[in-house]
């Protein structure tokens, strides 16, 4: 259940206050967003900006796998360099990932913008479908609503 459903009568300011409390305790949170209509869900971190790191985003994954991916990458980024734009790597027990810098993070990371302002930076973790096709490939089959890429690939 969502926070607002569990706290009727509380507004956005209350939710941002709650996020600050969790971020102070845990370092970041993962904010999930349900897809509307045929649009896919997406999720993103909120809190990495406090460490001068880019927030991380993934589109097209259900909440649980999105949370696992983002929490794992956020933990890595907080102890090492965050993944760079255009970088490709294979996750342990997971898919290959390509990192894409978001063109306009403030359009998609509403809660991060609410805490840190519109100048935040963000990087998307893009993954291939089950056949190994990427969202920019003509044969990509990415489920409900696909996997929107929110920036421009490095060198493309």
Structure overview:
The protein is 28% helix and 19% strand. With 156 residues, the chain is an alpha+beta fold. It has a 6-stranded mixed β-sheet with strand order 1-2-3-6-5-4, sandwiched between helices. The chain has 4 helices and 6 strands. The chain has one domain (3-126). It has helices at 3-6, 12-26, 63-79, 110-116; strands at residues 29-33, 42-46, 55-59, 88-90, 96-101, 122-126. The model has no long low-confidence stretch (mean pLDDT 89). It starts with a helix and ends in a 30-residue tail after the last strand.
Share of β-strand residues: 15-25%
- Classification by helices and strands: alpha+beta
Number of helices: 4
The shape, in one word, is globular
| Estimated radius of gyration | 15 Å
Poorly predicted spans:
none
Total strands: the figure is 6
SSE sequence, one letter per element: HHEEEHEEHE
Main sheet record = 6 strands, mixed
- Strands side by side in the biggest sheet: 1-2-3-6-5-4
Mean pLDDT: 89
CA distance, first residue to last residue? 40 Å
Number of domains: 1
